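Feature request, filed as a ticket because there's no other form

It would be nice if the structure record came with a short human-readable summary line next to the tokens. Right now we just get the raw output. Example of a typical job, pasted below so the devs can see what we mean:
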Amino acid sequence: MAKKDFYEVLGLEKGASDDEIKKAFRKLAIKYHPDKNQGNKEAEETFKEINEAYQVLSDPEKKARYDQFGTADFDGSGFGGAGFGGMDFDLGDIFGDIFGGFGGGRRKKGGPERGEDLEYNVTLTFEEAVFGAKKEVSISRSENCSTCNGSGAKAGSSPTTCNKCGGSGQVRVQRQTPLGAFATVSTCDKCGGKGKIILNPCGTCHGTGKERKQRTITINIPAGVDTGNVMPLRGQGNQGTQGGPPGDLYVGINVKPHKTFKRKGFDIYMDTHISMAKAALGTEIKVPTVDGDVTYDVPQGTQPGTIFRLKGKGVPRINSSGRGDQYVNVVVEVPKNLNEKQREALNMFLEASGDTPKEKEGLFEKLKKKL
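Raw output as currently delivered:
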């Protein structure tokens, strides 16, 4: 029977990199491992095949000869069908660096661990986001118990070393299978991975070493923040375990919309309305900005949609001395209802421009059209 292509067994193209081979093997090994497929002969055979392929393709010399000759029997020893033989594989070593270990992994759980991070969302006005603000927020977080100082043990006592795991927080179990000896590492079920057992728990925290506390924190929000920004406050999260450092507090920013201004990046946009006469003749207008009103001279003949810039009147750049600009869009208003004097003035303008004004129809003309 023709042997299967090792690259095909691992789901790879010929010439795959070492990293691709390693990742493919790990993925398939976890899927077809005997511990996860007990009694499944098909999975057992597949596991043998992927191991055989990996043993060849993971070795640079054997891989080069396989690529050249297309066989794993380099010395007639039948290496390609050797499988695991009698070797002892610790799956925590094989999978630990990517998946955190198999069946609990090899990560030591009895040592110090960093506390969990917390999240908090704060809402700002448009002006607060532009110029910065101080906000006081109230959060609930886990801290070391004030009675036992985080040990979890009653006053006058202390935790004892777990006699099942010897203080490591993990237990190692080795089993014999048709493929060889396999060792799995899992969290100690007696101490919960802490490596210590509390015989006399603290009455305040009941042995956890932690208690919930409500804390008020002052947040200095810098000028220029915007919706979607996240501020990390280091060390303001939940307290760590076994002497580990606390986590962080991540503050999400949300900015309320403004009735006049719209923000794009560090620039501010707004509309200003003027009459068509002022647009034609030019005028002086007051323009609102986040710093207060400023005067701007609108030149003669300004067209609808003209945009002028107020340099440096935008949003401060975060942690910088620069600012964005403010852009003002000119909206020319055309009157919908004209009084007689306005109509006459516009007709005179049309005549002066060489255009023929629209003549008002008299009663005789209207009757003539109906006949």
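Something like this underneath would help us a lot:
The two ends are 104 Å apart (CA to CA).
The first strand starts at residue 88 and ends at 90.
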